[in-house]
Amino acid sequence: MNRNTLAVYFVTPDGASPDLVMAAVRGGASMVQLRDKRASDSDLVALARQLKPDLTRRGVPLIVNDRLAVVLASGADGLHVGQSDGDPRALRKALGPGRLLGLSVETLAQLDAIPAGSVDYLGVGPVHATATKPDHAAPLGVDGLGRIVSSTALPCVAIGGLGVADAAGVKAAGADGMAVVSAISAAPDPAAAARALAEAWRSA
Ligand code: TZP
Ligand code: MG
């Protein structure tokens, strides 16, 4: 995959509207992940199908968290999974060629368990503690992020409590981008927040 696509990766909160997603993209989000722990598969398929044409036109990949069936039914561009969401080799096979597979990594040791050639990119975090994911692993800090990123050849997007102020540190640590939920979704103007993140990343 093109590493630049990870620059500003918007991960949705539960119950996100199409308007929120498109505001993030208008502002400059370069990748979108539908992450909704409560929505039904059919609601997520409908949302993904609604968003897909606009995102494709803008060159923004649409990823779905956890739900392989939603990816396959909606024509989304890929799947993002955590450490306990299945064998990446089996998921890669089920996705078929041309789709992206992202994997969350929380520790250096988890890198060793990734089957070669199975995963397209890593989500590395949390960098900071965050209320968005109450059950998150121990925060890595920017130093821990750097240790993981520099130990893999895979593209890496940092996640967890990130905002504009983190762009320089995350880029210096070697990550290819920042994934955010609340920095965009909880902002009074999500498009402006995404624009500020994209600008901060570009100029970092
Ligand atoms: N995985 C690790 S931290 C996190 C996820 C999904 C939540 C990030 O949310 P925020 O609001 O950007 O801290
Ligand atoms: Mg998961």
From TrEMBL:
Classification via SUPFAM superfamilies: Thiamin phosphate synthase
Keyword Heme among record annotations: no
Needed cofactors: Mg(2+)
GO biological process, one term: thiamine biosynthetic process
GO molecular function, one term: thiamine-phosphate diphosphorylase activity
Chain sites annotated for binding Mg(2+): D66, D85
Keywords for the protein's UniProt record, in alphabetical order: Magnesium, Metal-binding, Thiamine biosynthesis, Transferase
Cofactor binding, per record: Binds 1 Mg(2+) ion per subunit.
GO cellular component: a single term: cytoplasm
Residues forming coiled coils: none
UniProt xrefs under InterPro entries: Aldolase_TIM, ThiamineP_synth_sf, ThiamineP_synth_TenI, TMP_synthase
Top EC category: transferase
Protein name per the record: Thiamine-phosphate synthase
